[in-house]
Amino acid sequence: MNAPADLSRVIASQPDATLGYKDFELGAFRFRRDEYFAHIQWNTRDGRPLSHTMDAANFLRALMRDVAWGFFYGGVNFDHVFGTTNHYKTVDMYAGTYNATLKAAGVDRLENFPTEQIAATFFAMLDDWTNEGFDPFAAPQETGTPYGRKRGNNTPAITRARELAKRCVGMKDDLALRTDARGTPVNRAFADVPQEEPELHPEPGFEDEVHAFNLFAFLSRSQVTWNPSFTSVVKYSFMCPTTEEHILPIIHANDRVEWFFQMCDEIHWDCADKTTGKPLARVIMKAGDMAAMPAYCRHQGYSPKRSMLLVWENGSPNLVHEIQKGEAPEVPVQF
Ligand code: PHB
Ligand code: FE
């Protein structure tokens, strides 16, 4: 009997003698970084080598989300060529598969890996390629440069725990409120956000059941961007608010309907067909607007100022299969 493959094994080169970065290999894909770029190389289905180049900052910001979110819901496009699709035990990694032009030219490539295997390679690459002072979760104005030769690392920033409430922020044995003392000061863009907490008057015996908190104050103290946390969870209904500034570093390809509620300021969304990339819509969301992203779209947001966005997810593990079988709709309402 063959020994089971060690899925945590990462194939990496020695650090480059001049630049200091390692190269990585996963399946037929090779990854290399230099001072400004990440280069992805693969063999096309007929065995020819092809390469694709991304700005190192954009690549690392996208890689950070894929790693931290465990490959997220459905597709995480790093750009119009490269990305991953989550099948929840395995993950597809692809180049050109969801780009109508590359697909038609037959130069695309898709490979499927056990989640543990791709996660190990992606984490090692993120850690090796992230320099001291660069935080892939921070807004560009709030972090140092990702460019240049290898300088140290920023392992604390890339291993932050994801903030996931079990019931609701601030309840007993649950995610704590953010405070100065916990190292989460109010962001420069939210200095005017009131910080008072609501009064609670539960009947005796219901102190751990009746709850409320100031969500605006909680979000004003977020240290990161484009990183939804769970603030309340009711069965599979996950409230995932987040603060946004600059560009969502991935183009998310849904496998279910997602709702957006713009809580302040504004975000502009580009929406496209998730399979071909063909543009579908521009959605300009201003404070108070709500929108739903259908399960057949991919979307990327642009937030000119730091803003607050509530993302509402249906976390049911069956939903993706129900949609594939046509038992659940791809759109939130049918007229
Ligand atoms: C999304 O893809 O729907 C998404 C991801 C991260 C965010 C906001 C929206 O911060
Ligand atoms: Fe999304």
Overall description:
Helix content is 15%, strand content 32%. The chain contains 6 helices and 17 strands. It has helices at residues 56-68, 100-105, 115-129, 155-158, 215-220, 319-324, and strands spanning 11-12, 24-26, 29-33, 37-43, 49-55, 75-77, 82-86, 90-95, 109-114, 232-234, 237-247, 251-253, 258-264, 266-273, 279-286, 290-293, 297-314. Helix 1 (56-68) crosses helix 3. It starts with 10 loop residues before the first strand and ends in an 11-residue tail after the last helix. Fe (iii) ion binds at residues 252, 254, 258, 293, 299.
In short:
The chain has helices at residues 56-68, 100-105, 115-129, 155-158, 215-220, 319-324; strands at residues 11-12, 24-26, 29-33, 37-43, 49-55, 75-77, 82-86, 90-95, 109-114, 232-234, 237-247, 251-253, 258-264, 266-273, 279-286, 290-293, 297-314. The protein has 335 residues and is an alpha+beta fold.
Shape descriptor reads: globular
Radius of gyration: 21 Å
Number of helices: 6
* Helix-strand pattern: EEEEEHEEEHEHHHEEEEEEEEH
Topology:
Elements: E1 11-12, E2 24-26, E3 29-33, E4 37-43, E5 49-55, H1 56-68, E6 75-77, E7 82-86, E8 90-95, H2 100-105, E9 109-114, H3 115-129, H4 155-158, H5 215-220, E10 232-234, E11 237-247, E12 251-253, E13 258-264, E14 266-273, E15 279-286, E16 290-293, E17 297-314, H6 319-324
Antiparallel strand pairs: 1-2, 2-3, 3-4, 4-5, 6-7, 6-12, 7-8, 8-9, 10-11, 11-17, 12-17, 13-16, 13-17, 14-15, 14-17
Helix pairs in contact: 1-3
The chain binds P-hydroxybenzoic acid and fe (iii) ion.
